[in-house]
Design brief:
By secondary structure, the chain is α/β, with parallel strands linked by helices. The chain is built from 10 helices and 6 strands, in the order E-H-H-H-H-H-E-H-E-H-E-H-E-H-E-H. The protein has a 6-stranded parallel sheet. Strand 5, helix 9 and strand 6 form a beta-alpha-beta unit. The termini are close together.
Length: 211
């Protein structure tokens, strides 16, 4: 029986790639003479922001690039998927909800404010600052699982929902259950080849968890 549901954020709860890729392209074009395409950004997507910037722009002042991203991303606000808020409000009635993301606290708060997602829906939020490692390393769940264990919840009773292979590998190797949201970052067929169960959106959880 599932007692806790943990969520990735980018491209799981909010529409991140489609908006933030434009900010990254604009920075490259304006400041670094780099013409990025979607494929360039997708290859490094999901890394902590400074690692992402370093991968995309290479030999630049990363803190300068970071501040430029802070400014530019405001011109490309991220919105929630249509079913996100209503589904979370239903799920929180029966499950503990949590967040595990490579976002910084600063970005998560900004994005949640814009998307209209209240932070108090979640019993715990793990951002870049609380993470000693990152997905696909299964140790990324240690911080949250320690808190759940204190509440008497076992790993087998925890579900993680994400949109990438890194999400799946981390959850699988940590002993958690997993659903991959297909056709956003990874195709349904590709998830299934790896042995991952899929959903089309988080609203589908309301049906599946009742079975």
């Amino acid at each position: 029986m599932i007692k806790a549901i943990l969520f990735d954020v980018d491209d799981t709860l909010i529409k991140t790639f489609e908006t933030k890729k434009e900010a990254l392209k604009d920075i490259g074009r304006k400041f670094y003479g780099v013409e990025l395409i979607d494929k360039d950004i997708r290859a490094h997507w999901g890394r902590p922001i400074r690692e992402l910037l370093k991968s995309l722009y290479e030999d630049v002042d990363i803190e300068e690039a970071f501040e430029r991203y802070v400014t530019e991303r405001k011109n490309h606000p991220t919105t929630a998927y249509e079913d996100t808020l209503s589904t979370l409000r239903e799920l929180v009635k029966d499950y503990l909800l949590g967040i595990i993301t490579t976002k910084s606290k600063r970005y998560l708060k900004d994005d949640f404010d814009i998307a209209g997602i209240p932070e108090d829906l979640f019993f715990i939020i793990q951002t870049e600052e609380e993470s000693k490692v990152h997905k696909p390393d299964p140790e990324v769940f240690t911080y949250v699982l320690d808190h759940l264990e204190k509440k008497g919840i076992k790993k087998s009773e925890v579900l993680y929902v994400g949109d990438t292979f890194s999400d799946y590998y981390a959850a699988r190797d940590a002993g958690l259950q997993f659903y991959g949201i297909a056709e956003r970052t990874i195709k349904k067929s590709e998830f299934e080849k790896k042995g991952a169960r899929t959903i089309k959106d988080i609203a589908e959880l309301l049906i599946l968890l009742k079975k």
